[in-house]
């Protein structure tokens, strides 16, 4: 699906609904919706974003889902939300205050939904939202109530430090923890 620059600009005012339910195994958390995500209403919708292929390669889904099939995640005990709800062309358009407020609202959402794991796809976003300057990729010491937190690499195609294969390995570590550990 192609959008004109005007259509993408108009998407800045849209809210992208969360894909959530109570008691999920993993609640994936993006940084914020991109304009393509806002225009389509589907998370991680930009071509080149590696979330859907990596999710499948890591064993979370039996096949690679398309963004418009995001509702099927719930059948696998998975969901999606964002740290910040405001759509932007790039994450660097967000202020530190937006990240911190997003972290506060995210903590409230997690308290209500009580997923086993909150998986923040972007360690920098996690660091700012939760004021944890030294966080690294992987499980975090901090919890939100009984919900454990895992910082994942950002699946954006702009994140060249991580290949799809190395990303799938890290996401796979989370899958093992979420589906085999008590």
Automatic annotation (TrEMBL):
Record's keyword annotation contains Cell inner membrane: no
Domain of life: Bacteria
SMART domains: UDG, UreE_C
UniProt keyword tRNA processing present: no
SUPFAM superfamilies: Uracil-DNA glycosylase-like (SSF52141)
Keywords: DNA damage, DNA repair, Hydrolase
Stored InterPro entries: MUG/TDG (IPR015637), Uracil-DNA_glycosylase-like (IPR005122), Uracil-DNA_glycosylase-like_sf (IPR036895)
Residue intervals of the Uracil-DNA glycosylase-like domain: 17-180
Designated name of the protein: G/U mismatch-specific DNA glycosylase
Protein source organism: Streptomyces lunalinharesii
Gene name of this polypeptide: mug
């Amino acid at each position: 699906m192609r959008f004109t620059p005007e259509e993408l600009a108009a998407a800045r005012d849209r809210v992208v609904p969360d894909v959530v339910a109570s008691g999920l195994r993993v609640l994936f958390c993006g940084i914020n919706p991109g304009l393509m995500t806002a225009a389509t209403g589907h998370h991680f919708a930009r071509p080149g974003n590696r979330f859907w292929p990596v999710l499948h390669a890591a064993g979370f889904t039996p096949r690679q889902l398309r963004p418009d099939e995001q509702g099927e995640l719930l059948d696998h005990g998975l969901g999606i939300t964002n740290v910040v709800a405001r759509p932007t062309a790039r994450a660097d358009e967000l202020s530190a205050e937006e990240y911190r407020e997003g972290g506060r609202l995210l903590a409230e959402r997690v308290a209500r939904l009580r997923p086993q794991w909150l998986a923040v796809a972007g360690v920098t976003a996690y660091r700012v939202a939760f004021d944890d300057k030294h966080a690294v990729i992987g499980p975090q010491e901090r919890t939100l109530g009984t919900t454990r937190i895992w910082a994942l690499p950002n699946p954006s195609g702009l994140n060249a430090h991580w290949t799809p294969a190395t990303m799938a390995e890290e996401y796979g570590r989370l899958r093992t923890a979420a589906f085999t550990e008590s």
